[in-house]
Amino acid sequence: MRFLRPHTWAEALGAKAEFPDALPLMGGTDVMVDVNFGRARPNALLDLTAIPELRTWAPDGDALRVGAGVTYARLVSELADRLPALAAASRTVGSPQIRNRGTAGGNLGSASPAGDAHPPLLAGGAEVELESVRGARRVAVEEFFAGPKRSVLEPDELIAGFRARPATGPQYFAKVGTRNAMVIAVCSFALALRPGEGVGTGIGSAGPTPLRAYAAEEFLAGELADRWEKRDALPGPVIGEFAELVAGAARPIDDVRGTADYRAHVLRVLARRTLTWAWADHCEGGAGCA
Amino acid sequence: MTTPRVGERTGRIGDSTARPDGTPKVTGAFAFSSDLYLTGMLWGVTVRAPHPRAEIHGVDVGPALAVRGVAAALTAEDVPGRAVYGLDVPDQPVLARDTVRYQGEPVALVAADHPETARRAAAEVAVDYTVLEPLTDPRRALDDGSPQLHPGGNLVRHVPIRRGDPQPTAEVVVTGEYTVGMQDQAFLGPESGLAVPAADGGVDLYIATQWLHVDRDQVAAALGLAPELVRLHLSGVGGAFGAREDLSMQIHACLLALRTGRPVKMVYSREESFFGHVHRHPAILRYEHGATREGRLVYVKAEILLDGGAYASTSQAVAGNAATHAAGPYEVPNAHVDVYALYTNNPPCGAMRGFGAVQACFGYESQMDRLAAACGLDPAEIRIRNAMREGSAAITGQVLDFPAPVAELVRRVRDRPLPPQRSTDLRAMPGGVGGTTHGEDVVRGVGYGVSIKNVCFSEGFDDFATARVRLEVTGGEPVATVFTAACEVGQGLVTVQEQVVRTELGVDRVMIAPADTSVGGAGSSSASRQTYMTTGAVRAACAKVRDRLAGRDPASLGDEVIDATVEWRHRPTSPLDPVTGQGFAHVQYAFAAHRAVVDVDLGLGLVKVVELATAQDVGKAVNPLAVAGQIHGGSAQGLGLALMEEIQVRDGEIVNPSFTDYLIPTVLDMPPMSLDVLELADPNAPYGVRGVGEPPTISSTPAIVAAVRAATGRNLNRVPVRPEHITAEGLSVEAGR
Ligand SMILES: Cc1cc2nc3c(=O)[nH]c(=O)nc-3n(C[C@H](O)[C@H](O)[C@H](O)COP(=O)(O)OP(=O)(O)OC[C@H]3O[C@@H](n4cnc5c(N)ncnc54)[C@H](O)[C@@H]3O)c2cc1C
Fold first, then answer.
1. Most buried by CB count within 10 Å: which residue of B31, B73, B413, B558?
2. Does residue B161 lie in a domain region?
3. Residues 6 or more apart from B556 whose CB is under 8 A from it?
């Protein structure tokens, strides 16, 4: 097996162009599991850990640009104020060891429907930055996933990072698992309120890919349009309808972790609860505290 | 309690003594059997059948042998001795010849110079199968139309118990049907070992096991060798919980080593481990309890089906246990119990911590709660009213001639102060950092569970342990060395032998020789028996040494070596009457009580166990620190069965053979525990000890489920309880809000 360890981003792109079947390696928390289980036998590994740019984040215009190699631990400690739902999701990933190595870039690379970074990225309207020697492109997160564990990443492309606007209102992430830590989501949901603008949603583990609940977003944005300023209580039926629309957007299946019915039920409950919390925060003038 | 230190040369019976392997295990320095290495060794790999039931028409190892680096590829034809093995009934092929009875059954073996080569070559072995419809429903195992999986039919054992009035009536009657899912032992350190061919034509096997001698006898039979030519040496064991009582790779590694003339190492992956050992029997339990209006038990009727899977393993003994413990630690004058252990094409089931008593306990404790509700009694009160005590007769007619403080155990957990109300920390909520509730829909419940478990082997089994103690002066100091074949599997025997010798001989320096088959058998480290048995044997050997010492100071021995070996037995038990199930079947019972406090998110069905309070009588706490560890660990394993641990089997196939989806509790799932350890000596046992390991596993499960029922009002007749079991009944409530 070939082991490639570029030291600059340009070298990395060059290596990926030359060896398109080289498997990128960041935290290795998915790659090494696949190798150890015999599910992956790559001809080459492309180790990206020596590339400093991937480990950085910085404001870029009105957005925030986060390198693909920023770990969950750092998303929690450095970005909880600006990307609260992503930080909340990061806190639920694996164990401290996994959070010290695992990255949101790697989560995107694996493109699992259960990846915990995805719902908050969807809700936050993030874009994924892809790059190859041919050039760079940006893809909205919801366009990035092509199927279970499949994405639009081309063989010669790498994920440079993602861009998201810092939260302008309350954000929440909630994840149901059958134990209290170290668990793959049975189902998860993220909600971002953008006062005066609209609403973002993200659904995890309830479809072939992570999903946005478009109809729910549209409905709620309409309902909230003249309430952002008033900050009065949301009527129960609004919350109920939002919850129904979120559940309706999912395409869950029965599997070893849970049933389709349970997942749809969970989405209803989580949509209702996160909206209640987020709206209460908004009414109190808080910026959100996932 | 004294504060233990590592490497300390003190610690007598009753002192808290640190495990020498504790720190190495936590820091990763401990050498497991999978770390064994010899230059020039080969790696063995098992070819397993992918189907739960099939006929084999041929196995072609040619393509595997053609892979460069492969030294041998073996099939059933290459087993020189007895082709089958098994703990009670030798019904399991060393390698399947013409029939496959469960998914993952070994069919062929490959040895190569590199594990990756061996795995690739194993994939080249061509097996010609005709796939057959598997029998997977134990309720259909005895039907006329069902396939007969073994020559004698599909019944492994039926155990009836008939006591008292055959047609009893009662003022209050409650019935219930309960189901227990398949739990896995999930021990540390998957199956592994190293077989080294010896110059005398024999073989040395370095192995992580629970029972060296029974392994040895089965390996020798399959190899067609005299037992003396097969020498087993215990190597680093992570844990066992029953799963190392049956053979896994023992015969296979030896076959490959003798064939190739080279050392052969085999190591299962975690996934293979799920196919490589027996699991806890899934059970279907039907109960009827009759009582007076005051809640005094009049009768218990029970029918229990145990799914033994493809091979017998210890199903016979598990059935005996489920039957004799079917009414729990309660006095009941009339009993009508039938337990059936059955063959199916599901994964083989056998020993696991609690051994038949776990399944029964979920049934009878669920019934006691129903009875309490029907009689308008507090759940603790109904248990106290019916509690066994010294002098009580079990449903087998056996009279308890040792302390049985069941009522006291229940009172102790009941009278503990309840934990404070929930804090607002997310980690204290059901769902934890998942952030699924800020307290909405969270309800609290309290539940009780009480267990009874036999200690040591039962039903007339010739149960013994051997110990050899040598006393000599080395480096000017008296040193005692203990030789046994007793397996340390994490339970704490490692300090116990030293403690006995220090107590009996007054010698500080005690060495424990590595366990192997060069001394007589010690029996299995199972049935909560090894401290009882090996303590008895070491103490008796020390008494012999002391006799020969005849009052002399050990330091004055000079060149004299005193060496004594004792084969020690507990008082005999007797078989159950085959018709009535009556008999003195168990040498000792152990008891534990749990009170569980849980918070449940009614909306999502997520459970947070807030506190477990437990009280257990251990007779004598030989090492109080280890006793606490056993109670913590056992309770955690019971929590796992209550809330998450299940091997999911669909049409005979395991769908979650990994720690990604076979969930065991983490430190964030296990609540703080309060422990109340009673020491009421059993006059029949050495130092009065009572087995410790199993009771806490048995009673924590029903206590937790009872607490979830109390919180939610749901029936919950199946473990593990899954979130959708809680929400399914509540969907309409939730949706209407
Ligand atoms: C014990 C354990 C617990 C876990 N718990 C969770 C959990 O709770 N939630 C969760 O979502 N996940 C969990 N995971 C999975 C894993 O940790 C996450 O998916 C993590 O985000 C992967 O990141 P990584 O940096 O380790 O990626 P890697 O393993 O290095 O890579 C993952 C994939 O992305 C590709 N890749 C990585 N970087 C790039 C790049 N820059 N460009 C293109 N492709 C790239 C790799 O080739 C590979 O296909 C767990 C894993 C383990 C082992």
1. B73
2. no
3. none
Looking at the predicted structure, is the pLDDT value of residue B1 above 70? no
Q: What is the CATH number of the domain that holds B534?
A: 3.30.365.10
Q: What ipTM was reported for this prediction? A: 0.96
Q: Give the helix ranges, DSSP H, for A111-212.
A: 118-123, 141-144
B196 and B62, same structural domain? yes
Closest Cα in chain B, distance from residue A91 (Å): 7
Q: Say if residue B610's pLDDT is above 60.
A: yes
Check whether B507 has a pLDDT greater than 90: yes
**Cα angle value B281/B287/B293 (rounded, 5°):** 145
Q: What is the CA radius of gyration of chain B?
A: 26
Domain boundary among B569, B588, B613: B569
In a domain, B153, yes or no: no
Strand-pair category, A23-25 with A44-47: parallel
Task: Indicate if ligand 1 lies below 6 Å from the C-beta of A263.
Answer: no
pLDDT score for B313: 98
Q: Which of A34-38, B69-73, B726-730 holds the top average pLDDT?
A: B69-73
Domain boundary among B569, B592, B614: B569
Q: Give the pLDDT band of residue B422 (cuts 50, 70, 90).
A: confident
Cis link prior to A210 (omega < 30° from 0)?
A: no
User: Are the C-beta atoms of residues B511 and B469 closer than 8 Å to each other?
Assistant: no
Q: Which of A4, A110, A149 to mutate to test the pocket of ligand 1 (most atoms within 8 A of CB)?
A: A110
- Same-domain status, B589 and B646: yes
Residues B201, B255 share a domain: yes
Question: How many C-beta neighbours within 10 Å does residue B380 have?
Answer: 21
C-beta A115 within 6 A of ligand 1: yes
Tally of domains within chain B:
3
Assess whether pLDDT exceeds 90 at residue B737.
Answer: no
pLDDT of residue A4: 98
Predicted pLDDT at B4:
35
Q: Is residue B313 domain-shared with residue B453, that is, in the same domain?
A: yes
Question: Closest Cα of chain B to A7: distance in Å?
Answer: 31
B727 → closest Cβ in A175, A256, A262: A262
**Same-domain check for residues B582 and B690:** yes
CA of B648 from ligand 1 middle (Å) equals: 26
Residues B397 and B438 occupy one common structural domain:
yes
A72 CA: nearest ligand 1 atom? 21
Q: What is the pLDDT of residues A77-133, one digit of tens each?
A: 999 999 999 999 999 999 999 999 999 999 999 999 999 999 999 999 999 999 999
Q: In what order do the strands lie in the sheet with A23-25?
A: A2-4, A44-47, A23-25
Domain that holds residue B300: 283-457+578-727
Same domain? B563 vs B582: no
